[in-house]
Amino acid sequence: MEPITYSTSRVVLRELAVDDVEAVHAVYGDPKATEHLSFEPRSREQVEGIVRRSMASAAEEPRTEYALAVTVPSGELIGFARLAMDPHQPQAATIGFALNPAYWGQGYGTGTVRALMGLAFDRLGLHRLWAARSPANKASHRTLVRAGMTEEGRIRGHVHVRGSWRDSITYSVLAEEWQPER
To answer: Cα separation of 127 and 176, whole Å?
Structure first.
């Protein structure tokens, strides 16, 4: 299978490489960056395992997961994005992302979600994407809506993290609602 690269004016999504471990750890090891995610900060060794598994999943046929580096056009890795196919609905997938806090509030989150939509609808021919966020993560709400997703509702007791159950707020976008960058 051909490696994935998907570019917009703001970000580039590309396959992960072993050399990305430190930059991914700067995100997944950061308590601020993982505060609203479904897991606690990861060690460098855990991140190395995540990167290696992501690289291995890129070679699977059929491919069911796209775990990608988020870079700025200069090539600097600023985050991690994931698109996972729904095993029950082959034309649907879930997306998620995390960015280095140094890049928050600059439009890179919206750019990342838009790039994931472009990959899903333009390249993979999917029908539906969905995402979930922590109810406390108001910035993620703004990002997902600004990118073109619609809030759908709440999944109660959805994620067990930091010793307790947490709800998730869900969003979706359909292929016919997708508006490519002009």
So the answer is: 8
CB 114 within 8 A of CB 173: no
DSSP string, the chain: -PPPEEE-SS-EEEE--GGGHHHHHHHHT-HHHHTTSSSPPPPHHHHHHHHHHHHHHTT-SS--EEEEEEE-TTS-EEEEEEEEE-SS-TTEEEEEEEE-GGGTTTTHHHHHHHHHHHIIIIIS--SEEEEEE-TT-HHHHHHHHHHT-EEEEEEEEEEEETTEEEEEEEEEEEGGG-----
Residue whose C-alpha is closest to residue 95's, from 62, 66, 70, 59: 66
pLDDT tens-digit readout, 80-100 = 999 999 988 989 999 999 999
Output the DSSP codes for 112-133. Answer: HHHHHHHIIIIIS--SEEEEEE
pTM: 0.94
Where on the phi/psi map is residue 30: left (φ > 0), alpha (ψ -120 to 50), or beta? beta
pLDDT in tens, 100-143: 999 999 999 999 999 999 999 999 999 999 999 999 999 999 99
Contacts of 135 (CB under 8 A, 6+ apart): 154, 166, 167, 168, 169
